[in-house]
């Protein structure tokens, strides 16, 4: 892939052959902002797991202390008192059969979908639509729950869901470049601790093979994997 002039200029701002500490990584990506919008700070991890085996799947969620910097639209599938709870918690869309019909019609105006366990059979009707979009509620990410209030607050307050792909990679946004260095460090540390907490018992060898930090439109900054592995 041909590198643009802007990309080449950004590469001159740091040593891309060096492995950086987490603090150095945050300090460096803060200097790489070049877009006309508030770029997302992204972490990419290559884990030493084989997700073809169920006992090596790494999946979960974590609420970042400084939030994600994004406005998240939350939909809730619930009835009666739980629907009222969702509305009180400021969910953007609340419904049951009517919401399922909207999804079937292709009207997906939300970023996160939460459902009560008793209505997952209803949600299953649109599983083929939601699944490929990463919107299917799941207990592991806290989006299938009876605690609707907490789930809505988490989703709007900075929850990040993560799931290892077929190659063992995890990508996630941990904030915006406009965040302070302290906010980004807090978010980065919290995210890494969550990944380490989800290390499969069956995973052998070095858990994190490599890691990078980048902006939406910047080169990647290599991170010290030992520091990451040691962070608990």
TrEMBL record:
CDD domains: Ribosomal_L1 (cd00403). The keyword Lipid biosynthesis does not apply. GO terms for biological process: regulation of translation; translation. One of its GO terms (molecular function) is rRNA binding. It comes from the Bacteria. GO terms for cellular component: cytosolic large ribosomal subunit. InterPro entries: Ribosom_uL1_bac-type, Ribosomal_uL1, Ribosomal_uL1-like, Ribosomal_uL1/biogenesis, Ribosomal_uL1_3-a/b-sand, Ribosomal_uL1_CS. Keywords: Repressor, Ribonucleoprotein, Ribosomal protein, RNA-binding, rRNA-binding, Translation regulation, tRNA-binding. Gene3D superfamilies: 3.30.190.20, 3.40.50.790. Protein L1 is also a translational repressor protein, it controls the translation of the L11 operon by binding to its mRNA. Binds directly to 23S rRNA. The L1 stalk is quite mobile in the ribosome, and is involved in E site tRNA release. NCBIfam families: rplA_bact. HAMAP family: Ribosomal_uL1_B (MF_01318_B). Part of the 50S ribosomal subunit. Belongs to the universal ribosomal protein uL1 family. This is Large ribosomal subunit protein uL1.
């Amino acid at each position: 892939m041909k590198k643009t002039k802007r990309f080449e200029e950004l590469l001159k701002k740091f040593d891309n052959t060096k492995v950086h500490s987490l603090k150095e990584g945050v300090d460096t990506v803060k200097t790489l902002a070049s877009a006309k919008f508030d770029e997302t700070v992204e972490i990419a991890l290559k884990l030493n797991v084989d997700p073809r085996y169920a006992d090596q799947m790494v999946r979960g969620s974590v609420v970042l202390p400084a939030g994600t910097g994004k406005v998240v639209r939350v939909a809730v599938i619930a009835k009666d008192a739980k629907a009222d709870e969702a509305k009180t918690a400021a969910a953007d869309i609340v419904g049951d059969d009517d919401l399922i019909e909207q999804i079937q019609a292709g009207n997906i105006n939300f970023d996160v979908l939460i459902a009560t366990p008793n209505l997952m059979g209803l949600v299953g009707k649109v599983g083929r639509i939601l699944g490929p979009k990463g919107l299917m509620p799941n207990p592991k990410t806290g989006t299938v729950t009876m605690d609707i209030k907490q789930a809505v607050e988490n989703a709007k307050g900075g929850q990040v869901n993560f799931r290892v792909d077929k190659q063992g990679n995890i990508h996630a946004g941990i904030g915006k470049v406009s965040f302070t260095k302290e906010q980004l460090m807090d978010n980065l540390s919290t995210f890494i601790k969550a990944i380490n907490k989800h290390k499969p018992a069956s995973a052998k060898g070095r858990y994190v093979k490599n890691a990078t930090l980048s902006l939406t439109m910047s080169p990647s900054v290599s991170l010290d994997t030992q520091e990451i592995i040691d962070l608990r």
